[in-house]
Amino acid sequence: MEFVTRSDRPDLREMAAVVFKERWPEFIFHDEVPKKYMDRVEQHFRHFDIMVLDGGSVVAGGWGVPIPWDGTAEDLPSGYDGALVRAVEAHEAAVPATTLAFMAAAVGASHDKRGLATAVLQELTRRARNAGLAHIVAPLRPTWKHRYPMVPMDEYTTWTRSDGLSIDPWIRTHQRMGARVLGTAPRSMVIEGTVAEWESWTGMIFPVTREYVVPDALNLVRIDRELDRGTYVEENLWVQH
């Protein structure tokens, strides 16, 4: 198993994109904030964008962004979108970063149960420590929350198994690494589109104005037929390692 950055191996970017896309719903890729900032994230923070190679193939990967953070819950970004904005704007304003925010980790569907997600997070942590960053945080997108889209995140995080760990596999991964919950990120991602776009992204039909349960959405999606607008505000969970 070998760790490389995407900038080290640009020839593997397409293979890595497949690994990252297969676990995410289509609508996630239509958040406007990453569209505005990802080119600069890739330019500024290449050291924290890694792939795991096994036999020359990409089997997992993950990335993070360094942000200034004073260590209090009140100073956390709004979530995923907020962390991207803060990382880029702080870097370009020469504001020193204190913290690495894990933004995503993905494992190829045929490589589950190998501990690869944990390995990715550990490697990113090692790189953060070597870079002198004092804190590690993450705006988690819990794996099973989409099964309970009408349950608030703060309630969902209290649901535990008999061993005291979360019922959620992704939260458990972080708990086993020593992470603790800091609080919810109520507006972690905001995704908007026309009704036709939402129908294309989800394979559903939205005939009337109302909130809908959408596969793989952690919260309800609001469809307004009169305004021809669909809006999804995703709530995530901040944890600290």
Automatic annotation (TrEMBL):
Matching InterPro entries: Acyl_CoA_acyltransferase, GNAT_dom
TM region(s), chain numbering: none
Domain N-acetyltransferase: 1-209
Gene3D superfamilies assigned to the protein according to its UniProt record, in alphabetical order: 3.40.630.30
UniProt-recorded Gene Ontology molecular function terms: acyltransferase activity, transferring groups other than amino-acyl groups
Protein name (Swiss-Prot/TrEMBL): N-acetyltransferase domain-containing protein
Organism for this UniProt entry: Virgisporangium aliadipatigenens
Lineage, broadest ranks: Bacteria, Bacillati, Actinomycetota, Actinomycetes, Micromonosporales
